Write the structure tokens for this entry.
Amino acid sequence: MASANDPAGSPTMFCSSCGRVMETTASFCSNCGAANPVLAQAGAGNGGNARGSVRTDHIKRRNMWMQVVLTIITLGIYTIYWFHVTLGEMYRANGTEDRRRWLWTILYIFPIAQLFAYWHQGYEYDKFISSKYPGIAIFILWILFPPAVWFLVQRDLNAAAEGRPFKLGGE
């Protein structure tokens, strides 16, 4: 983001991605969704949520009740699609390369290999939410009660899609 002074003397910021004028206090560009690096650096220095420095405009909000209905209607096949799409959204938000998403989705289908997919997604989710829940806890929850993982992941993805902050720990 470049900045300049307008005639009134207040600074004006320009988005480095699209070049549009944006508010200096905005976390993201309202046009393209790029993060404001000045605020991202300030948040990182204050121990702020790392999510504030990533782009989340690609994340789609999904109705959780509709997902339950789709899972029942498709006899569980929707969960494979959900795993694949949400893993891709977390990859992009985390800045992780997306080349192996299909591999993890295929592993998700096979019973023993599924454990590796659970492990991987748990740690991607851990990075996405800035260690709100440890990856190992998500992995164990995947094994014990998968609907809880679906709920946690989708709740936080919906929060990111709506621009709402995550509630970390005791906050």
Observations:
- Confidence is low (pLDDT under 50) at residues 1-6, 41-52.
- The chain has two domains: 2-48, 64-162.
- The beta strands are 2-5, 11-14, 21-22.
